[in-house]
Every structure is written in structure tokens, then in C-alpha cells.
Amino acid sequence: MQTAVRKPIKRILVLHDLCSAGKAAMTNILPVLSVMGAEVSPLPTMILSTHTGGYGKPVIRDLSGFGGDCAVYLKSSGFSFDALFLGYLGNQANIEEAKRILGMFPDAFVLFDPIMADHGSFYSNFDEAYGRSLKELLAYSSVATPNYTEACLLSGEPYEPVCTREKLARIREGILESGKAKIVITSIPLSDSYGIGILDGKETILYPYQLKGRAYPGTGDLFAAVLLGSLMKGSSLYESVEKAHEFVSLCISRSDEAGYDTREGVLLEPNLSKLIVG
User: Fold this and answer.
1) Which residues contact 248 (CB under 8 A, 6 or more apart)?
2) CB-side exposure of 22: number of CA atoms within 13 Å?
3) pTM over cut 0.85
4) Which residue(s) pair with 185 in the sheet?
5) If we measure between CA atoms, which residue out of 111, 130, 118, 132 comes closest to residue 225?
6) Residues 244-276: pLDDT tens digits?
7) Nearest 5°: CA angle at 153, between 180 and 112?
8) What is the C-alpha end-to-end distance of the chain, expressed in Å?
9) Each residue of 105-125: pLDDT tens digit?
10) Is the dihedral of CA 256, 261, 265, 270 positive or negative?
11) Which of the two residues, 116 and 278, has the higher pLDDT score?
12) Are strands 182-189 and 143-144 parallel, antiparallel or unpaired?
């Protein structure tokens, strides 16, 4: 086995889907992590003509089996990774591939975005069995970034249209039973606003915000990417959440001002300079 020279920057392996058009998934994640100073190795779980947020049914090619074989090759060639980004897996086979990859790089920081549901229910191609399998990945994770619906499913808490602090505490307990990961819950519906919940073994912090602007696909991927990039630079979890939220909000605001087609995702490229490391 060859030994790769350790580089003076962080190297991140990203398991996610890749769209040819429309800014979501890797199309958002790769440029964000790059401008934040990391070297990114993309490992697609499937490839699509577009994301599924408004263009109709895309052309999809499932790459199940590729991930694990690719990781074996990378490891045998001497590659190591400071972090793994687990995003859209899409089926049971890719979940097993993710476990295989996690076992090859046990020292890597793991950000897990359990993409499976929103607005109170599973996405049409997922079910409870898939959710239970995804939940197993919490045991490998350093930080997980479910949205509110996904957090309810992972914790066994029923979905309710308004989340109280008491309910958030129950979600925290339910999720933390599955591992030691710190949890960042996005899009929490509060009584008069929305919030981001930051949960770890010691405390729960609620970061409230007012919902502004139109809805765009891929903002969850964008949030998670900025969060991971900031953590890799040594920022605290709270600082990283704040930076991720502010950047996503900026991209939404600039996209609204430009009258950008929401189906394309946010107007990302002109705003990337806000993330460039000095």
C-alpha cells in the first residue's frame, strides 16, 4: 500500500447524490467546502439529471456498490480523510456501503445529514424501514443535521406542527440514545417563529429566527456544508451553526432580489466569496 503525503489542509470525503443541473446536494457542497479551505473528494451515491424539486421526474442512475469499492481503492492507495460527509444515500444498499466506508476510516469526523423526510412525513421513496436503517448511522456520527421532521422520526416522537421546549427535550433524549453525536435540528416550527436546535449530551440551545424569503431546494445541503467547513476550521458548534444560517439566509435574500428561478436552488456562486478563508 502506498502512503499519501499528509497535506496541510483538511481532506473531506462526501457521500451524496450528484445532479447535472440545479443547485442541490454535491453541486452546493463541493464549492462551499473548497472555498472554506478543504480538499473535497466526491463519492456519488447516485447521479441525476436534475434534483427532484420542480423539474419533473429526473433521469437517475443508482451507483450502489461503487462507494465501498471506491473507498477500498482510496484506502489502499494511502488516502486518509479528516472528515466524512454522509448525505443522500437513497436505498438500503447505500446505507450498508456507508457503514463499510465508515469502518475503513474510523478516525474521521463524521457529519451525517439523514435525508429522508420533511413536512411531517417520509419522502415518497422512503419508509419506516429505511428510517430505522438510517438511524443506525447515528452511532458513527460526530454531528447529525436532521430537519425537524427527521428528528421526530429518529427519536420516535410524533410530529406536531409546533414544537415546544419540552418536546425538543424529548427529541433530544430519543436521539441521543442512539449514539454520542451532537445534533443540529433545522426548521423547527415554534409558536411565532422558527428555530435551530443545538443538542448535545449536556445542554440544548435554541437559535430562533424569522422565516424570510422563498423556499429553494438544496438549502439544507448548503447549511450542512457551511457547518462542516466551519467546524473543520476550528469554530465551535454554535459559531458554525450561526455562520451556516447567516450564509443560507444571505443566498436566499440575494436570490429573491434577483428574481432567481426557485427550481434552480439559490444563487450561490456570487456569494461564495463570503466564505473564502484569508
Assistant:
1) 219, 222, 223, 226, 266
2) 23
3) yes
4) 197
5) 111
6) 999 999 999 999 999 999 999 999 999 999 998
7) 45
8) 36
9) 999 999 999 999 999 999 989
10) negative
11) 116
12) parallel
